[in-house]
């Protein structure tokens, strides 16, 4: 299978996550826990079939940042799943895709990277787009809570991207597997101390949705995604990544029957356009 097709399939799969999360009658934390657990098993099976082993010598050098990024991934999922509960899948996804803008602002401070006039303009325009998505005239408290959760997830995803910049020796699917295991280690006691484990009470449709989320949307899609990256240029991968939010918006409106205003659509397009322009900027040599 060509790298471009692998990446496109992965992005389409990611874009449909909202449908299945809404069908799982568990807390967001428990969904995140079992997503990481199921996906870890799938990735380990994939590595066994491919006869690829993890180099534990290299792993030790990056273990702290791998663990911290894994924790951020776990709680990032929780906030994103909460966003799906309070607002539409399209608005949750567009709020979540503000993460690259956060990275754009933070990296010059942390890594002493030069920020250009173009990047400042991209940040301003993306922020205007976010304001349009939020739709300040809205009085729907539930919708605003969902947007807040989506932005919280964006902050944590930005943290994952930044932490990954410190990981030098573990790459690709190995990095993801260790991060998922770290997420499991932290989420398990968190769930036991809050909602508890309630998977035994799930109905068949919820079980099927949870398995699809873990196997297809995480294990399978991540394997496709990372196996495609080695054969794609950075700019090409950046462009293809925006299939995910576009699919999420289409699914939200056509299948879930959720409403989105013209103003919010324009705002979403502004966010995606200007973050994409920053991603494919030839001056951006280092990627998260």
TrEMBL record:
Protein name per the record: Transporter
UniProt keyword terms in alphabetical order: Membrane, Transmembrane, Transmembrane helix
InterPro entries membership: EamA_dom, EmrE-like
Transmembrane domains' residue ranges: 7-25, 31-49, 61-80, 86-111, 120-139, 145-164, 176-200, 206-225, 237-256, 262-280
Keyword Transmembrane helix: yes
Family stated for the protein in its record: Belongs to the EamA transporter family.
GO CC list: membrane
Domain EamA as annotated: residue spans: 7-134, 145-277
